[in-house]
Automatic annotation (TrEMBL):
UniProt xrefs under Pfam families: FBPase, FBPase_C
Biochemical pathway: Carbohydrate biosynthesis; Calvin cycle
UniProt family annotation: Belongs to the FBPase class 1 family.
Binding site for Mg(2+) 2: 117, 120, 280
EC number of this enzyme: 3.1.3.11
Protein name: Fructose-1,6-bisphosphatase class 1
Compartment list: Cytoplasm
Binding-site residues, substrate: 120-123, 213, 244, 274
Domain Fructose-1-6-bisphosphatase class 1 C-terminal per the UniProt entry, residue ranges: 204-332
Subunit structure: Homotetramer.
Species this chain originates from: Mesonia ostreae
Keywords: Carbohydrate metabolism, Cytoplasm, Hydrolase, Magnesium, Metal-binding
Cofactor binding, per record: Binds 2 magnesium ions per subunit.
Taxonomy of the source species: Bacteria, Pseudomonadati, Bacteroidota, Flavobacteriia, Flavobacteriales
Amino acid sequence: MAKKNQTLGEFIIENQADFQYSSGELSRLINSIRLAAKVVNHEVNKAGLVDITGAAGEVNIQGEDQQKLDVYANDKFIQTLTNREIVCGIASEENDDFITICGQKEDHNNKYVVLIDPLDGSSNIDVNVSVGTIFSIYRRVTPMGSPVTIDDFLQEGNQQVAAGYIVYGTSTMLVYTTGHGVNGFTLNPAIGTYYLSHPDMKFPEDGNIYSINEGNYVHFPQGVKDYIKYCQTEEGDRPYTARYIGSLVSDIHRNMIKGGIYIYPKSSKASNGKLRLLYECNPMAFIAEQAGGKASDGYQRIMDLKPTELHQRVPFFCGSKNMVEKAEEFMK
Ligand SMILES: O=P(O)(O)OC[C@H]1O[C@](O)(COP(=O)(O)O)[C@@H](O)[C@@H]1O
Ligand SMILES: [Mg+2]
Ligand SMILES: [Mg+2]
């Protein structure tokens, strides 16, 4: 049983056996993400002081202006994972195509691929609102020693071996799962160590927070409009409270602790919504389900969706189980 205030390092070692294929590689991989997150956290905390705010002047494959911190975080995570030779491929929101990590030896036995949203909530960087990083880990499907292919990345979310996020907020937390529940670790910045502050995190089955960008209301499908009206109706424990930070990681983290639902639906402006299946929705869905919550595209379980493209978008309904089921009823 996880001991409160255990360090992340201790927790990783102690729980290594949990993992079916445990050979220490996944532990080293999680440790590398822990390290890269500390480096990025250091920069995030100085946003505004150092020249790390504003646009980097490039546009990513999503057509978004890359923020300097998007690029910085992307470089730090890719560097840290590459230098430790534990992954055979990386895909990122900020890179058009996946990257093959060969390392020193061509025939390395690295068996994991990582998909990452290096900086989530980019629109909040310059305004001192919490942002995050999201990661998703799979075992490769192509034979060891053979070139990594797109098939290693286009796997259904139910094949994830681990997933998690880092939230750079009032404190910095790393929250992850390897399919054995969800645990949250808070960084003590004074000594640079993560401590188990939130063991065995659980989504309350019900909540009274709904998180959606109502500014797009007129463009939403009727089912979403009806669900919003339902949330705002004076009846029983409603109206619910509206909370929307505009950083997926932070909105889901809050709702997991307090109970709530996050929705980024499709709309007449965005036929598949905005969020990316592989490095935003699948990892957050794995976390949500492992914490007793639910995640769908309004109809189907997110983690059963068959990916077809690296940067594909899907509608996203995620949160307290009963609230997501209620919203799905309105989508029927
Ligand atoms: O401004 P909008 O349209 O409400 O979108 C906000 C959503 O977009 C995102 O910022 C997309 O993620 P990135 O910042 O990683 O591109 C989510 O974090 C957030 O929930
Ligand atoms: Mg994102
Ligand atoms: Mg991002």
